Amino acid sequence: MKILMVLTSHDKLGNTGKKTGFWLEEFAAPYYVLKDAGAEITLASPKGGQPPLDPTSAEPDALTSATERFDADADAKAQLASTHVLSKVAANDYDAVFYPGGHGPMWDLHEDADSLALLEAFAKADKPIGAVCHAPAALVNAKGKDGEYLIGAKRVTGFSNSEEDAVGLSDVVPFMLEDALKEKGGVYSKGEDWGEYVLVDGLLVTGQNPGSSEKAAKELLTLLKVMPGS
């Protein structure tokens, strides 16, 4: 079982002068869910190398058992420091793909040509696709095997407008993710702010927020277990 995880390379939080990137919990929790299930994980990002970490996600109130496990895992840290360049990876080498969130994907993965081509290849090959929190931004412009938007008429979730308002970044992000998912035909819904909420529609898994990252990875695994040849 080979799974690709795609992280952001974007580190600027709009024009605030602050840093952003990927959210640690949204990487660490799925990473260990998949790894503990025996998956061979490959990490990639648009620029390759060490992806930027959102510093807020490493503050004490954002830490979890998964982030603490990662902090003590030299092998995982080394793997993260040397992600593959996204343009050099191919969907046919993997059984599924998972996108951790953080605000970074709103700027780069949202319109990255290599990421979009990769997602479209996974969709065409009927392979599971997962994304959590802000990472469904990467799905917004991707097309499915029918040439229509990948999320069109599919039940999806992602970081909600009310959660963006709560973190005070609604005027900073390039677009509101909830609105963008709806605009491309996604049947958006959400749970309580910050609560676990994950949707599965066909081979597409989306999670609403950091608290949904572990369950989203588990749902991806469930899809893989029922795939032909699994």
Automatic annotation (TrEMBL):
One of its GO terms (molecular function) is glyoxalase III activity. Keywords: Lyase, Stress response. GO terms for cellular component: cytoplasm. Residues 25-222 form the DJ-1/PfpI domain. The keyword Protein biosynthesis does not apply. CDD domains: GATase1_Hsp31_like. InterPro entries: Class_I_gatase-like (IPR029062), DJ-1/PfpI (IPR002818), Prot/Nucl_acid_deglycase (IPR050325). Gene3D superfamilies: 3.40.50.880. One of its GO terms (biological process) is methylglyoxal catabolic process to D-lactate via S-lactoyl-glutathione. Belongs to the peptidase C56 family. HSP31-like subfamily. This is DJ-1/PfpI domain-containing protein. It comes from marine sediment metagenome.
